[in-house]
Amino acid sequence: MRNVGTARAAASVVLVGLDADAMGMVRETLAAEAVLPNSSISFGDAISAVKRQRPDVVIVGFHQAMDAALALAQALVKESPNVTMVAMADQSNAEAILAAMRVGYKEFVVLPDDASRLRQVVHDAAYAPDDDDEKGLVVSVIGSKGGIGTTLICSHLAAEMAAIHRVILLDLDFAMGDAASMMDVVPKDTLHDLLPRADRVDERMLTGSVAVHRSKVHVLAQPNDVDKVEESNPDDIYMVINASAKGYQYVLMDIGSYVDAGAEMALSVSDIIILVTAPDVIAVRNAFRRLKLMERLGIEKERIRLVVNRQSKTSFVPLADIQSNLGMKIAATIVDDPKTVDTAINEGKLIRDINRKSEVAENISSLVAMLTSDFDGEDDEAPKEEPAGGFFSTLFGRG
Prior knowledge:
about 400 residues; Rossmann fold; 17 helices
């Protein structure tokens, strides 16, 4: 998963060993900087709570239980090395500060004197980049126009990967998301249910919210009631994706064709973006627009895989023209086979279950290679662009 240098709205914090007065001072200091729990937990419960909640910051009452605070820090350094630990005391003491620093505390604060320093360390923890090496591969599937097959491709790709990997499918099509119907599953909770508590989403919450497809894909769907669908908040979307990447080896995101701020966030953090187009004028023109949008977002072309769906010998726009005018090679094509595809959709089955030997099933199965092999988005051997005044000149604004 890509780090985009953005805050997760507010830092998440676990409080350990604080009395009521200390809790009050922390709340007053961090009201605008952090998501704070309702109560402080005991030292005995701290390790399990940090593992479960994966907070950005752990604030520990230091002076009243110094030995326990030191032992906790030593354990957390091993169990949760990325968490920021802060020792909170009622008075400053050189020996205590030195002891705290030696076991891994980043700061030693006395409130209210050190309020600004506490706010800064919590703020920095919220913006600190995560260890991407420990996260799963994040893949988004976006269409150049509506109804082009992003849900079909995303769900089938997830099913192929789930045979040997832990995979979650996030339905981020807030306009008309239909991943649940495509995979014939009944959602427990939906993405709409999780977003209001996005700051607390972790692997445990995700596992309890997803519907599980028979292929073992975990599906976090959109609600059936379109009245519940609202404009997505980018920070909330980021936190759900981030939690998914921590808990799953592959995160497949169906973005659909509607691009809002949440979709832009999803694209920005994706390791691979599958851009789905079709061999017709409108789809190719809109694919060009999508590429320009991703360029403005700072997304490198090397991250993008161009897939042409519904390809046939009688397609209006040849593959060579698609490549030359979009300035990138086609990573894969999916044959036009409406009979097989429609049967799978209407029966809520995977295409491989309808006809494993069909060309469309083989095409979709081959898409897995795009996620596991190196790919150069540029194509030196692609046909040159049409000269100004040619068929595509007005299509791409070059006439």
